[in-house]
Specification:
alpha/beta, Rossmann fold, five-stranded parallel β-sheet, 6 helices, 20% strand
Length: 164
């Protein structure tokens, strides 16, 4: 069984994330969405809320693709998380050249820690390249319309959280 791990904070999950999830599902039998517990980033949503949104967003994707998709919170090294879930592949989405520079360093370190885990990069669709959770939250905080960047469920959660 080919198991992939797509890690991130997903605060919140965007249509860019779900596009990568959909495309990664074609590469593996099981896709684990690693939800990073990163207190340094000061997430808007709790871990439980992020996991719940991911599960809701991925239920239809899983049914459509036939690939098992599960959310898995983690706070350890990414390579250890990959081992914990039995992943042979780490999936990373790239939006721009600046993403690649950071990801290139991470691949080198992960390969040094465990050369049996391969990293696969999926380029963001052109229409999703500008979407970043950080920017979505900023736009939402300033009363901008983020409905074209997130699902209706996530849009409602953002409005509720920000009191809009």
């Amino acid at each position: 069984m080919r198991v992939g791990l797509y890690p991130g904070t997903f605060d919140p999950i965007t249509i860019g994330h779900t596009d990568i999830i959909r495309r990664a599902s074609a590469l593996v039998d099981k896709l684990v969405i690693g939800v990073a517990i990163n207190r340094d980033k000061g997430p808007l949503f709790t871990l439980e809320e992020r996991v719940e949104m991911i599960e809701a967003e991925c239920a239809k994707l899983s049914a459509d693709t036939g690939t098992e998709i599960v959310a898995h919170p983690f706070e350890n090294l990414l390579i250890n998380c990959a081992r914990d879930v039995g992943a042979q592949i780490i999936v990373r989405g790239l939006r721009a050249v600046s993403d690649f520079e950071y990801e290139f360093q991470m691949v080198g370190m992960n390969r040094a820690l465990d050369s049996s885990v391969e990293t696969v990069f999926l380029m963001a669709e052109a229409r999703h390249q500008a979407i970043a959770s950080k920017l979505v939250k900023e736009i939402a905080r300033l009363d901008g319309d983020v409905s074209k960047f997130v699902s209706p469920l996530v849009h409602e959660r953002l409005k509720d959280r920000l009191g809009k």
